[in-house]
Design a protein that fits this description.
12 helices; five-stranded parallel beta sheet; Rossmann fold; DHBP synthase
């Protein structure tokens, strides 16, 4: 069900859940400071309680009330907010442990989508908003995807058009000596190092976190589980076309996904069904179309999906490969 911005605000104020557009993917939003509402998010998604949520804020002044900031984290916000980057910081008591999977840290982001920002501005409250999909499934990048993914359980949705980034935000842990990327995204390691003037590590830099009772807490950030972002149809990931065509798993009942229109023509000449992630193979176009194509492929109800990705795992390609390797049943690509 599509709803208006005013209706979304009313529902959120009443403790209900609403799907909202961001520049990255659509999020399943609820009031972040209400534990009962947060639990509804986990229930609807079927999300394990060990997988923390991202708290969305309007700006740094709002985030200051929720987490402990140092000079580096303030600089990150000044340079990259609003935008597709999430920062992990020590949380303040205002944040319920339900949000953080029992961690004493919280993931914060200021989204850069006019609809989401307008809602945050009018609510004057932070929103918890993981991707608006059942747990571990492909993330939605259009309002229509949400209905396809949830079926009759789809939450009321504000249609903000197609997401311009198409991948979840970069997650940067700022709680240790070196800033560490826990989940790659559109803002790359190189972007961060150039802007901050210091080394940024590539994670996950796995450090066991503890809750206040001294017990092991949940994941450091969203997107760290081994299986994630997956279509219903089994997905196999290949490093090049030659390896794909020699694969024992490949059959005429399968669907092949490639990066460019030129590669699609090659595959179709061999009488296989094929979809392309882009025309030219540009990083941005591949990232923007990835989830949409995977959802489209799922609807074709083939026996298997095969995706050929031969690009170097650098820049935005690293984020694409992060999602693909977690979505795939089998991968011959190392990142």
């Amino acid at each position: 069900m599509l709803i208006s911005l005013d209706d979304a605000i009313a529902r959120l104020n009443q403790g209900e859940l609403v799907a909202l557009p961001t520049e990255t993917v659509y999020g399943l939003a609820g009031l972040a400071l209400q534990a009962n509402t947060v639990r509804k998010i986990f229930e609807l998604k079927g999300r394990p309680s060990t997988n923390p949520l991202i708290v969305h804020v309007t700006d740094f002044s709002e985030a200051e009330n929720l987490a402990e900031f140092n000079d580096l984290s303030k600089r990150v916000c000044k340079i990259f907010w609003p935008g597709p980057i999430t920062i992990v910081l020590p949380k303040k008591d205002l944040i319920p442990l339900e949000v953080t999977a029992g961690n004493q840290t919280v993931a914060l982001r200021a989204p850069n989508h006019p609809i989401f920002r307008e809602i945050l501005h009018r609510l004057k409250q932070p929103l918890a908003a993981p991707s608006a999909n059942p747990s571990n499934r492909t993330s939605p990048t259009t309002a229509g995807h949400i209905a396809e993914l949830f079926g009759d359980m789809a939450p009321p949705t504000v249609d903000g058009g197609a997401c311009i980034v198409g991948l979840e935000s970069t997650v940067l842990d700022l709680t240790y000596d070196k800033p560490t990327i826990l989940r790659p995204g559109m803002i790359t390691r190189n972007d961060l190092q150039l802007a901050l003037g210091e080394e940024v590590l590539l994670g996950p830099h796995v450090i066991q976190r503890m809750n206040k009772a001294g017990q092991t807490a949940g994941d450091q950030s969203p997107g760290m589980s081994d299986c994630h972002y997956a279509p219903k149809t089994p997905l196999f990931l290949h490093a090049d076309t030659k390896e794909l065509l020699e694969s024992a798993q490949l059959s005429r009942k399968d669907l092949i996904i490639v990066c460019t229109a030129e590669e699609r023509n090659v595959i179709e000449q061999k009488d296989f069904s094929c979809l392309a992630l882009s025309i030219s193979g540009s990083e941005g176009e591949i990232a923007r179309n990835l989830y949409s194509v995977l959802i489209q492929a799922d609807k074709k109800k083939r026996r298997r999906l095969h995706l050929v990705f031969s690009h170097s795992p650098k820049g935005l390609n690293r984020a694409v490969l992060d999602r693909l390797t977690k979505a795939a049943v089998q991968s011959n690509i190392q990142i």
